[in-house]
Structure formats: C-alpha cells, structure tokens
Specification:
Layout lengths: L2 H10 L8 H10 L5 H11 L7 H25 L5 H23 L7 H16 L3 H13 L19 H6 L2 H7 L2 H9 L2 H12 L8 H22 L2 H27 L13 H7 L3 E2 L3 H6 L6 H6 L8 H15 L5 E2 L1 H15 L1 H28 L1
Parallel strand pairs: 1-2
C-alpha cells in the first residue's frame, strides 16, 4: 500500500461503528495495478475465496447464540451453589466466541451492507458481552492499517507494557514498574482484559466523535444492568462477587490468548518504516498451525497473515487461501512465518522479556551504584576510626 493509502485510512478512523477501514485499505491497495498485492488478489478472487458464506455464518451464529442462552439457563438452574463458578468458566468461553463473531461482523464478512453490520455488531458487542462496538471498531481498524507500527498501531502503545526497547528506555510510571518483569506478568495481566473492555467502552461514550453514542450507551448499560441484576437476584452476595471475578478474568485470559500469537514478537515498525501493503501485513503477522480445534478456538485468526491481507474474507475460507498466499510470498522472497500455538506464545514472551531489558539494566545499575556508595561510606567510617 502506498503512503497516501495509509494516510487515508488513518484520517478516516473516527470511532464510527460499521466503518470498514481495513477492507477499504485492502481494496485501495488492490487498485495499484501490477503491485505484488494486486497480483495476489487476482489469484484469490479467481479461486472464489472472497465469496460470502451466509449459511456458514447462520449456523455459527445460531450455535454461539444457543450456547449463550444455555449458559444463562444453566446459571439460573444451578443457582446458589459453588458449581455456578463452572458456569462462569463456560460463559467465559462463550463470551470469547461472541467476540469472535463480532470481529467477523466488523470486517463485513457476514453482511455486505454497513447498516446491517453495525446493528449486528452493537447487539453482539454492546448488549451481548458489554464491549463498546464503536470504540473497538476504530481501534481495530487503525491496527489493521499499520500493524505493529509503534506510532500508529494502538495495540503496541506502551500503556502498561512496553513492546520495544525504545519504549522501555522512555518508560515512566506503571510501564516502567511492570516492564522489568512483564514477560512473567503477561498472562496474569490478561485476566484484567475483560474488565478493560468494559471500561474502555464506557469511556468512549464521552468522545463526541463516536457516532451513535446514544444507542451504544443504551445497549452497553442495558448489558451491565441485566448482568449485575441476574447476579444479585440469583446468587447471595459472596457468590455474586465470585461469579464475575471468575467469568471476567477467564474471558479476558481467553480473549488475550487468541490475539497474543498474531503479532506479538514479530518485527515492529516506527517512523518512516512504511513497506508496501503486502509486506507490511505479512512481515508483522504470524500464523498458528493446527487442526479444526485451533480453528474454532482462535476463530480463524490463526490464519492471521491471510486475514490481514484480506480482512473481508469469511473466516472459513482463510484455510483455503493459505497455500496460495504462502506460495506467492515464496515467489517474492517474502518471509512467511507459521508456528505451533505454544511456540507462538514462547516467541511473544521472549520478545516482551527482551523489550524490558533497558529497564532491568537501569534498575541493576542503580542498585550497583547504591551498593557502591554504601561500601565507600563504610570504608570512610573505618578510616576515621
């Protein structure tokens, strides 16, 4: 993609639910006749892989909605019992699956029309799981436009964690405190991601650039009212507190574990590092190999390279697109990375540990300086004696 294309996408991100900025970026790159991506796009279209899959999404949405309803029925039937925490764990997985369906809706893989995508996204996101759809859509679109770019991708902003050694050197406050051991804290911190999604969605309502704030706010607070109301009507206070603690923590852990293998530990870009669209998407993404279980658990996002190149492609067709994309990359000499799930986590954690090295070095240097000053003081005291 050209620099102008990137600028168009960045300027378009205005917290508008239903905006398909990732798809627009891919389409604009495809119009660059003769480019490496345009030639790949012709192969993908010739294979019929951009066709919509309405029956697949009808079945998938029906199953997820059925599991969602079954989880809450089980919650009521189990009632005042500690077995309710098992229901909380089950619903954590179901909430993750709802989030994955919402993700596909946001990329217009499900509905062609923007209004239909927006309505479905708000119902699943805001009302279903308490996630602000407009806020997420804006954030995710900017990520797709410039993945792993330290200045343009909101997913690698050093809010709590630092993603590069450059960020670590400039870190202050909480990122500096956590950064020294962030690789060990990464998965524990993911347990807070569910709560973070709720808070971020509410905070976004104060942003006047968020379109349809009223409907988003109504659906979001309706979710909170129904969720908390069900807890305190069905459960005594102790269990009513334990249930969301287990549910939201496991939901955050599951959701974070889905997205962590995709880009963490892959090359980062900064400043004027602006390769063309194909290379920017491929070189910063990682695929996770596996069978049908991985496909379901990660919602097709284990084919992250193909998803970033063709964000509008229905998720069940990403597997079919993979050999075409991989061969095209081999012909171009572009590195194409695919690993197992455990290896992907290992690479991500190793990258986080390396990124925090400057903080650990500064801490060690200060400790050595302090130790040296203490030793010198003791020597002076003995000399005076």
């Amino acid at each position: 993609m050209s620099v102008n294309t990137v600028s168009t996408v960045e300027d378009s991100a205005v917290l508008e639910p239903g905006a398909d900025l990732a798809g627009e970026a891919a389409e604009q790159a495809c119009r660059e006749t003769g480019s490496d991506f345009a030639r790949l796009s012709k192969k993908i279209n010739a294979a019929g892989l951009m066709r919509r899959r309405p029956w697949y999404y009808a079945l998938r949405t029906g199953i997820v909605a059925g599991l969602f309803a079954a989880g809450w029925v089980a919650f009521v039937l189990v009632g005042d019992s500690w077995w309710t925490l098992a229901v909380a764990a089950f619903l954590a997985v179901v909430f993750g699956q709802v989030a994955l369906v919402t993700h596909d809706v946001g990329h217009r893989q499900v509905f062609r029309l923007r209004k239909a995508s927006m309505r479905a996204g708000k119902l699943a996101g805001n009302l279903g799981i308490g996630m602000g759809y407009g806020w997420w859509q804006d954030k995710h679109s900017r990520h797709h436009a410039n993945p792993n770019h330290t200045e343009l991708d909101p997913d690698v902003v050093p809010d709590i964690l630092v993603w590069t050694q450059g960020q670590a050197k400039a870190a202050k406050g909480l990122p500096r405190f956590i950064g020294r051991s962030q690789a060990f804290l990464f998965f524990p911190l993911l347990t807070l991601e569910g709560f973070n999604l709720h808070v971020a969605g509410v905070r976004a309502l104060a942003n006047r650039s968020l379109k349809q704030r009223t409907s988003e706010g109504i659906l979001l607070f309706t979710h909170f009212a129904l969720y908390l109301g069900a807890l305190f009507v069905v459960l005594p206070p102790g269990k009513a507190i334990a249930f969301p603690a287990v549910h939201q923590c496991l939901f955050g852990l599951y959701l974070g574990s889905i997205f962590a293998p995709n880009h963490k530990g892959m090359p980062t870009l900064t400043g004027d590092d602006r390769p063309d669209f194909l290379r920017r998407q491929v070189l910063t993404s990682r695929n996770v190999r596996g069978g049908w279980f991985i496909d379901i658990a990660l919602g097709g996002l284990n084919y992250q390279i193909e998803h970033h190149l063709f964000p509008n492609m229905p998720s069940p067709q990403l597997r079919e697109a993979q050999p075409i994309v991989r061969q095209h990359c081999e012909e171009l000499g572009v590195s194409y990375l695919e690993t197992g799930l455990i290896t992907s986590y290992s690479q991500a954690l190793r990258s986080l540990h390396d990124a925090g090295a400057p903080i650990r070095e500064k801490t060690a240097a200060k400790a050595d300086l302090k130790t040296g000053a203490t030793t010198d003081a003791k020597v002076d005291v003995k000399a005076d004696a």
